């Protein structure tokens, strides 16, 4: 996005609306925002072209039988960016970030087993590797960062709640992803707003069957839609990963408290010496310092805190577009997901 561009109220409302329902028709969003459908469509196209806006359809890893690992790699400066790009090109990674002066890479790996961890140590330039199993997600995934989701009022939010879902949550295996869903899910990972007709072509199903399957997956919470966009447009010019060690007896209490903080976009309990990790989004370094010293500093159960400034997000939730050519050891296609039964 050009530096001179500032998101106005309509832009912010559109992003908030997409967080509520990533597949909401433009006409429905327009009616809630009291603007024309053409205005919403034009703003959406502009934000896609200039701000990296993208809606992506994602499967809940727990519903798909996949583990989530946060992998931290330290690398020599000349290798760090190439390594981050190589990780980003893999289909089993998301949230690839360059941190700590550009010599640390942090990635989330979704896999039935951590095959990746046996490949990384043999990669030139890597000086250290640690892996942290994500035990519980307190904030993130289908829950939007509040900095992007505070434009619409309660009545508008109710009007934009998904309307095409079953009256009750789908139970049993019918609501879980299966190998037959992979063409549908692959298309939604690239673009969560793909029209039903295109999804029908991708799957070989009828549009009615696609719509019904989408509704089942969403109702079971196996499928959710996330929004990618440049967070600096919402005032988050300073970002950092926070690695905390919390006394086990107070871990859940502290994590739930952190999940209510407007400065945080991600909070998860993990294994390892740092058993709680968060992502902070702040306007500037002074605001981050104030948050660390006043809000986190007031929580006595946090025994240690490591702050790793994020320089760049190489990959967000969805796959890289367009797909980069694969090369090298780290770019071997991962094993197919082991879907839950």
UniProtKB/TrEMBL annotation:
Record Pfam families: AsnC_trans_reg, HTH_AsnC-type
Domain of life assignment: Bacteria
The keyword tRNA processing is annotated on this UniProt entry: no
Residue ranges annotated for the HTH asnC-type domain, each copy included: 7-67
PROSITE patterns: HTH_ASNC_2 (PS50956)
Biased composition (Low complexity): 322-331
InterPro entries named in the record: AsnC-type_HTH_dom (IPR000485), Dimeric_a/b-barrel (IPR011008), Tscrpt_reg_AsnC-like (IPR019888), Tscrpt_reg_AsnC/Lrp_C (IPR019887), WH-like_DNA-bd_sf (IPR036388), WH_DNA-bd_sf (IPR036390)
Gene3D superfamilies: 3.30.70.920, Winged helix-like DNA-binding domain superfamily/Winged helix DNA-binding domain (1.10.10.10)
UniProtKB keywords: DNA-binding, Transcription, Transcription regulation
Region (Disordered): 162-181, 322-341
Name under which the protein is recorded: Lrp/AsnC family transcriptional regulator
Species for this entry: Streptomyces noboritoensis
């Amino acid at each position: 996005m050009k530096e001179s561009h500032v998101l106005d109220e309509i832009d912010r409302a559109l992003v908030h609306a997409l967080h509520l329902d990533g597949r909401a028709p433009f006409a429905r969003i327009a009616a809630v925002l009291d603007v024309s459908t053409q205005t919403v469509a034009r703003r959406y196209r502009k934000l896609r072209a200039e701000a990296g806006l993208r809606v992506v359809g994602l499967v809940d890893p727990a519903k798909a039988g996949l583990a989530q690992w946060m992998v931290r790699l330290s690398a020599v400066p000349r290798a760090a960016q190439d390594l981050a790009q190589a990780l980003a090109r893999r289909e089993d990674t998301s949230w690839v970030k360059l941190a700590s002066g550009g010599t640390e890479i942090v990635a989330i790996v979704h896999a039935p087993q951590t095959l990746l961890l046996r490949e990384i140590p043999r990669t030139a330039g890597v000086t250290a590797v640690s892996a942290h199993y994500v035990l519980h997600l307190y904030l993130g995934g289908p829950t939007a960062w509040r900095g992007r989701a505070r434009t619409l009022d309660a009545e508008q939010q109710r009007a934009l709640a998904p309307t095409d879902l079953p009256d009750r949550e789908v139970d049993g295996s019918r609501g879980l992803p299966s190998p037959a869903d992979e063409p549908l899910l692959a298309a939604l990972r690239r673009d969560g707003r793909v029209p039903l007709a295109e999804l029908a072509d991708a799957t070989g199903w009828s549009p009615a069957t696609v719509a019904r399957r989408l509704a089942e997956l969403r109702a079971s919470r196996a499928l959710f839609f996330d929004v990618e966009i440049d967070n600096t447009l919402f005032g988050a010019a300073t970002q950092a990963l926070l690695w905390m060690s919390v006394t086990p007896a107070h871990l859940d209490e502290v994590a739930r408290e952190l999940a209510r903080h407007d400065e945080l976009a991600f909070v998860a309990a993990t294994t390892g010496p740092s058993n709680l990790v968060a992502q902070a989004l702040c306007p500037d370094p002074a605001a981050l310092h104030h948050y660390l010293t006043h809000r986190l500093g007031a929580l006595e159960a946090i025994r240690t805190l490591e702050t790793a400034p994020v320089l760049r997000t190489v990959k967000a939730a969805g796959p890289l577009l367009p797909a980069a050519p694969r090369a090298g050891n780290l770019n071997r296609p991962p094993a197919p997901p082991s879907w839950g039964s």
